[in-house]
From TrEMBL:
<dbReference type="InterPro" id="IPR009297">
    <property type="entry name" value="DUF952"/>
</dbReference>
<protein>
    <recommendedName>
        <fullName>DUF952 domain protein</fullName>
    </recommendedName>
</protein>
<dbReference type="Pfam" id="PF06108">
    <property type="entry name" value="DUF952"/>
</dbReference>
């Protein structure tokens, strides 16, 4: 599989995203207990949304330029217990950097709204060429 241009973090819209991103956003309980930041490729985001965010009306999608964090990324299964190759379908990019995801890593972000499912939001972001592999 090819190397992605971007990797993505899905964050529930429980708080407003600050106009200026801090050096580090609060991490999820899952990231904190895992010791790394769970990320997804464009191919993985739809499944991640359907599995973990199906009951959310809105989410933030944070876009990180892969080349900027490549040295911090390990490709592993979703639990971080088995290594794999870059871009393999069942391997996820995990950022190991003391749980810091903020202004130094995030290139841009958008807010997506679910309208029963996430397909419309995904298709809209693809059409705008924001959501790319």
């Amino acid at each position: 599989m090819s190397t992605p241009t971007y990797i993505y973090k899905i964050v529930p819209c429980t708080n407003h995203m600050p106009a200026t991103l801090p050096e580090a956003l609060p991490v999820s309980d899952l990231d904190n207990s895992s010791g790394f930041i769970h990320m997804s490729t464009t191919h993985q985001v739809p499944g991640t949304l359907k599995r973990f965010f199906k009951d959310h009306e809105r989410v933030y999608i944070l876009r990180v330029k892969y080349a900027d964090v490549e040295h911090l990324v390990k490709w592993e299964n979703s639990h971080g217990t088995a290594p794999g190759g870059v871009g393999e379908p069942d391997m996820f990019p995990h950022i190991y950097n003391d749980l810091r995801l903020g202004s130094g890593e995030i290139e841009s972000w958008v807010e997506w709204e679910s309208k029963g499912d996430w397909d419309e939001a995904i298709n809209d972001a693809v059409a705008k060429k924001w959501f790319v592999y």
